[in-house]
Design goal:
two-stranded antiparallel ribbon, 7 helices, Rossmann fold, eight-stranded mixed beta sheet, globular
Amino acid sequence: MSKDSPTTSAARELAIADLRERIAALESGVAKRKGCLPFGLPDIDAVLPGGGLAYGALHEFAGGGSGTVDGAAAALFAAGVAARTKGKVVWCLTRPDLFMPALAQAGLHPDRVIFVESDREEDVLASMEVALGYGGLGAVVGEVVRLPMVSSRRLQLAAEKTGTMGIAVRRWRRQTEANDFGQPTASTTRWRVSVLPSEALPVPGVGRARWLVELMRSRAGACAEFCVGACDEQGRIHIPFGSGDRQDTSGRSRHSA
């Protein structure tokens, strides 16, 4: 019986290894998602590496101030992002105070959300890590006040393993807690959302909500700020006509589309 050549043996081993990976993915029901989730707005997507929010990564969202109004806007912005992913969304929290009709208006239907309530923020972070490692989910959202570097690294690694998007919503109860947002984390992007006066209508009434969305940090990308219309029923934001200029970190003004 003739022996295989070294080249043939190497090719066989590669084929077997590839087959094992495919079988493991089928058995676990997880197909690692790659790429990015674009906003569909050229001005925003252009400053994000890959043209959108990366899958398999952790992203941070927080209100522009320590109040509940900006915090709610940040949560809705995060909900709109999660709504545009495919699959179930796990939302981990310590305070069961989410207003589901508001999430639905931001595109995230209650039937897609699995809530995980914990007594401590440490348990929220642990639940996020487990959910991210499970795979097959659209996104994993966690509401936390603090996000230690070690915890954020664990979440980032868990997200990379399965390709699931991780979202940390930083919610403050007092101004002193908001100061923690300046501490370094392993998040790929960091966003700050502040409420602006609603869009003007040609008749008396309340127009679509507007936000100042600041990209505070983007790994291998630039920072910028945008005046946007709040998420619609599909989770999409838009740049209102005549919203003015937005600034990048170099101080140069670039017109919003």
